Structures are given as structure tokens and as C-alpha cells.
Give the backbone structure.
Amino acid sequence: MLSIPQRIAEELSVNQAQVEAAVGLLDEGATVPFIARYRKEVTGGLDDIQLRHKEDRLRYLRELEERREVILSSIDEQGKLTDELKKSILQAATKNRLEDLYLPYKPKRRTKAQIAREAGLEPLANSLLENPELNPETEAQAFINKDIADTKAALDGARQILMEQFSEDADLLQSLRDYMWQNGVIESSVMEGKEAEGAKFADYFEYVEAINKIPSHRALALFRGRNEGILQMNLKLAGEEEMESHPCEAMIARQMNIAQQGRAADKWLGDTVRWAWRIKIFTHIDVELKMQLKEAAEAEAIRVFASNLKDLLLAAPAGPKATIGLDPGLRTGVKVAVVDATGKFVDHATIYPHAPKNQWDQSIMVIGELCRKHNVKLISIGNGTASRETDKLAKEVMKKYPELGMNSLVVSEAGASVYSASEFASKEFPDLDVSIRGAVSIARRLQDPLAELVKIEPKAIGVGQYQHDVSQTQLARSLDAVVEDCVNAVGVDVNMASVPLLTQVSGLSQSMAENIVHYRDMHGAFKNRKEILKVSRLGPKAFEQAAGFLRIMNGDNPLDGSSVHPEAYEVVEKILGKFDREVKSVMGDSAFIKKIKAEEFVDDKFGLPTVKDILKELEKPGRDPRPEFKTAEFKEGVEDIKDLKTEMVLQGVVTNVTNFGAFVDIGVHQDGLVHISALSNSFVKDPREVVKAGDVVKVKVMDVDVQRKRIALTMRLDDKPQDQPGDIKKDAPRRSKPRQKQSAQSGSFGNSAMADALAQAFKK
């Protein structure tokens, strides 16, 4: 049997020594960002993606080994652990296979088969299975006694024994499971009387699709419909009703050497096979395969969520500029908050430019005075109710005060209310109204999305599919990993970072992050990285993990503002010594850096990958992996879905990317969908190949359903509304039979394939 490192090495197609080294580092408490960035020599250059996969597999395989030991011990205690069984258990590569092998030995409630064995009927069952020439009625006569009233009772008991035996055959179960996965279909239908209540699931009222072909978003919609008592889901073979005999029953018969040859026991054995499949085995497999479908759908939904979250966290920052945040509202007014270039809250107000008060000119004056007073350069507007009206207000402010040189941008306010009511926000702004805290968050997320969004629970940011329907443990683990990777990829200014941001730095716990901020408040800004070691409860191990990701700008040592780890400063000193240069003069001198041969500075402690990384950092110190900041220009006069016309070409911002396409904010309070088939003129397998959350894109309006608030868009600007993409039909749920009539609420989408696609898309 392969060891855990050997198995992972095979899966990743890397050297076993690399895996063993990475496992050792993880077990010592090293984080994935630290290992990927600063231990390349040890792991042979495993990147963060490989390390995350290895970390997940390591967790799974260790759980598998723990379970294997429990099972071996349990069977051994029963005195039933044969060499052959032990070998099979040791070779089991998955949890499913392991549980199949354990099934006959697993302690269980007293079954009908066990009762039959206790009554002495096992010899009858075995004799009929081994010799079908025997007559069941005749053989059963010998087993009638005070506990077994007649031959029928004897044969029923024998059948229960064989049914349990068939249902606990590990190889047979795996074959049947594989066959049903490859050939089974899921049919769903509406529960009687639930048509009106479950209207949002109408596309699944008469639906059928191969179980192994159902996309993640449709699978999760099915399970949600079932959980809400609207849908019933059935697993079967396609055309099962027309089959003379069930293929799975035939597989059981073959495995057990049962055949219909006209012998005395053949019919009885055939009925036993049928009962075993329908009553015991299928019930077991039905639950398992639906769970397999759900787990696969959840894994894909989590992957999509993680990918979108990464794009959002690494969105371009507007930078350290004084910013005013506007949290739009109608009756309750627009909440206004001003933050300085460092993100520090400095001022606030509430204005009422919209109905019912309509204090438009007064509101312009208030914002203008705040902008002048605090030298504001950016206006950040939340994209909720009244955002376009508030954006128009901001444009008038900019027009009236051109000397201030301001820019405005509508940003996603998803999660702002979560932050506002959070414990951290309460500590940061104990005397500030919750609504003003939201405006502060809106302002800061324009300055630096990463620094602000880490304060919000990831699943509240709103970039996922069915995030409440998936395993919350796995979702949290995946999203936490994304946040950690993003924060450490960018680096953190230790003199400006909040506690939530510092908590995401490699090696730092929340208490350490709080202690860093406390030390900073007591002693002023950190002057160098060594000073971080003075922070309470932050020891050498935590410092080793964190130091390279903590930046000190304009401190004692220019290297402290780079990603060069303090442990490698001696390499830089060697380079400086050889060329007699000062560190300040070297940093950013690309022409000089390019002439340095990395190989000359390799030694037993620092290998070539580390030296090359140091030179890259010296060439572009403190480089930010995030893209350049740019904004979308929403079309003036297009502020509501009713303003949209087909063939309009608009700019928008990608808000969410799913497996079936991308949602785009075009400034009308309702995101439009660009279906996967309308993203590009060439075939697109994964929408993320073309767009990501935060991208500014140009789209054309293809269709609008005002009643249902559905907008069909295309990024293929030469598309015409009458030329609906044929590929869209691939995303539409398949119906088990033609619908008799189209819903009266189908709106302008009619019977087109786009209608089916959008129906699915907008269930997000």
C-alpha cells in the first residue's frame, strides 16, 4: 500500500520528497503562503495551488487512515479479520470502498436476516444458492419447528439472509454504484398542490437529466426544491418502465451465479435478486448517489465562490486618497462618511436629496463643503436603492466643484450592513450610528477593497452560487484560504492595517493582531521589522511566518518595505558588498539588477529560487499583484430597467461569474446575464477564461423582461436580438415530457431557449 506522501506525489505528479517536505512544514505550523513564498528550495517550488490541494488531500487521507484503523480493530475484535480481508481493507483507496468492505461486519440493529440466522435458516439459504436444482418447498420442510411455523416462513427467512448477503458484497455494490452513476437519470416533479407556492422551481416540475451531467447550479436548485417540500426527486434508469428486466438485477444475478434455466430454485432465487435490488440495494445506492451529486455540486459551487472572491479581493484599489462614501437611501436619506487617505474616519452627515424631501441643492452644498474641507478626491457610492439617483447627485457635485478634481464610482455594497453591525465595527466606532458605519465601509472599499472586505464574513460578500445550501464547514475553510492567500500575496502595511487584516497574515492569530495594534497605539509607528518582536506574545516562530508579509514603509531599512524576508537580508548585503552600492540606490534600478547573476549568490542556506525572488523584489520593490484601477461609465439616462432598449451598447462591471455565464451591473439596479455562449465568438468552456468579478466590460442588450426583472446581455457586440445563441439551450433543464402550455408570465422571453437559460440563471 502506498504511503500518504506517495499517493499525493502521484496525484500532483511531483517528487515524493517535495510532498514529504511540505507535510513536515505544515505539521510544524507553517502556513501555505509562507511555504510557497519562502521555502521553495525545501519543497522544490510547489506553488500555493499545489500546496492547497496537497493540504486538502492530506486531511482526507489522514481521516481515511484513522477510519481504516478503527475498522481493522473492530473486525479483529470480532475474530473475523482474515488475511484476504485485511489486504482488501489496506488497499481501499476511498472512504466509500472502506465502508463497503466494513458493511458485513459493522455493528447494527438486529435485522430480519440476523433473526433468521439465529433460527438456523442459514444452511437453507446457502444450499438453495449453491444448488438451484433443489426444490425450495421440499428443502424448507426440514426447518419447520416451534419457531418456524411453515415452509413459507422458512423460505422468507432464507431470502432475508441472501438479500443481506447480496447487499453487503463490496465488489457488487461498487459495480452497481458505477453503473447507476453512468446510466441513471434524475427525474423531478412538483409535489401535489405546491405549484403556486413553488413557482420559482417551475423549470423542475417536469424535469429529467442524466445524474452525471447535471451542472452544479441545477443540482443545488433541485435539492433546495426538495428540502423546501416543493419537488420530489427520483433516481432511475432512462426508459426503465419499458425494460423487460432491470440491468442491475441482471448484474446481481451474474455476480451470484443465478440464472433462469428452468431448475427448481431458479424462480425463487430470481425473486430474491429482485427483492434484494428493489428493497435493500437500490435504497442504499439511491441515497449514496444523490449524496455524491450533492457533494460534487457543493464542491463546484464552493470553487466558483472562491474564484469570484479572489477576483473581488484582488480588485484594483483606487489608492490612498481622501474619499467620501455615500450610502444611498430614499425616505431615510443618503448617509455620508468621509475618510482620509489612510482610511481614517473624519466626518459624516445625512442628506435628503431624493423624494419625499427632495433637498437636492442643499445636498450638493453639504457634499461639496465636506469635499472641500477634507480635500476629497474620490466619491464612492453604494449600489443599492437610489444608487443611480445618488450617482447623478455626485456628478453634479463634481461639475459644480471642478477645482477639486474628483472622480466618482458606484461600488458593491454587499456585506456593508454585515460589517456595520459587527463586533469589530462596534469597537472601532462605538458612538457612530450603524448606517454611517456602512458609508465608511463603502468609502474604504473603493480605496482598498482587500483591506475592507477582510472585515466581512466572506459568504456575506455575495459572489457565490447557493452559498447557504453547501457545507458551511467546507465553504468557510475554502474561503478562509482564499482570503489568507490574497492578503499575503499583496502584503500588509503594519502601521496602517486593521486587526481583521493583520489576522489574515501568515502566522498571526487574532490576539497577536490585537497586540500589534495596541503596541502601535502605545508606541507609535513601527520603525523596523525587528521591533515587531517586542509585541506581546509574538515569538520567533510567529515572526518567521509573518515578517515577510508585513511591510514598514519609510522605516529605518528600505528592505522592510519589500517582500524580502529578514532572514534573507544577508543575501542582499552580499550583493551590495560586491558592487559597493547602497540599498536605496539599488532598489528599483532595473538595469543594474538585470546584470546580476543570481547563481553567484547561492549558498547552502539560500538556493537559486530564493535569490531570484530577491532580485525580482529589488527590481520592483513592494510590487502589487493587483491590476490598475479603472472605472465603468454608466450611460446617462439609463437608470432603471424600464430605460433599457434592445441593441443598446453599455459599459458595466462584472459582479459575479458562474458556470453558466457572468452577471453584469449596468447601472439599472438589476444585474444582466451574459450567458456563457454570448461571452465570446469562440467556444468558452469556463466563463472565468474570459471575465472575472470586477472587470469593466462592454455589453449589448439582447432582451428585457421588465416584469420579472431579467436582462439578457451579450459581449458579442455584432449579435442581433433575433439571433438568440443556440448554445444557450444546453443550459436549459431538460423536461421529462413537453409542457402543455407556456406560463402566462413568460413575458418577452416567450418560448425561446434564452428563457430557459435565464430561468436557471436568475435563481441564484
About this structure: The first strand starts at residue 184 and ends at 190. The CA atoms of residues 687 and 748 lie 26 Å apart. The radius of gyration is 33 Å.
